[in-house]
Amino acid sequence: MSGRRLLGTAMAMAAIAGVLAVLAPPVQEMTATVLAAQDTVDRTGAEALLTAAAGMLAWGVWAWGALGLALTAASALPGAVGRVSVGLVRVVLPGGARRAAALALGLGLGLSGPLAATTLLVATAPAAAAGPVPAAVPDWPVPAPAAPVGGPPDWPDAPVPIPSGSHVVVRGDCLWDIAAAALSAGSGRTPSPAEVARATHSWWAANADVIGPDPDLLLPGQVLRPPP
């Protein structure tokens, strides 16, 4: 995790807090408005109550995000502080939010060049990808070789052998979970988000010709080989 990335994330959160402070009423005023909901509606109308509720919800989301980023950053620290933070971040953030926070803080992902994503995460293409990336993501792996000429007409195609340690994608799989499972099986312990983030990038780089430019798009049936 670079100090520049951590400082940039902290400044972004501070800027969001500043915008909320300008656009939303003071927190004490919003709390009093929501607690006296009926009186607020009678005096100023339902719009004031909705505005206060929306402002409190926005501050709640901001506080949740700030806490998640702080715990994710602390999880990269060595010793007891890092171990405790890893446990807390799993309680505070779901899996997708943990990946977004780890990528936002640059925990071990040496990536360059933005990719569109539907969450806060900013993923990038590998700096030295293994071979050219295809223009389109294939629907399935390379089909099995056809039967040799002259064989019986009903001879079935030979199955494609799956290399040892490879992973066949099933519905619901994602690179983060695949990398985390491989780390747990190899080390016999639960890896930290920073370790999983590095392993996720390694799996993507090793299978860029199969996955394509979007690491979040895995198709059932794809065979992913483990990184060297």
Write a concise synopsis of the structure shown:
With 228 residues, this protein is mostly helical.
Structural commentary:
- The chain is mainly alpha-helical.
- It has 2 domains: 3-93, no CATH class; 131-148 and 159-228, Roll (Membrane-bound Lytic Murein Transglycosylase D, Chain A).
- The protein has helices spanning 3-23, 27-35, 37-44, 46-75, 79-92, 95-104, 175-187, 193-206, 208-211, and strands spanning 111-114, 124-126, 167-168, 223-224.
- Strands 1-2 form a two-stranded antiparallel sheet.
- Helix 3 (37-44) packs across helix 4 (46-75), helix 4 runs antiparallel to helix 5 and helix 4 (46-75) packs across helix 6 (95-104).
- The radius of gyration is 24 Å and the shape is elongated.
- It starts with a helix and ends with a strand.
Largest sheet report: 2 strands, antiparallel
Radius of gyration: 24 Å
- Counting DSSP E segments of at least 2 residues, the number of strands comes to 4
Number of domains: 2
Low-confidence blocks of residues? 108-131
Q: Provide the spatial order of strands within the biggest beta sheet.
A: 1-2
User: Element order, helices and strands?
Assistant: HHHHHHEEEHHHE
Q: Tell me the helix content.
A: 40-55%
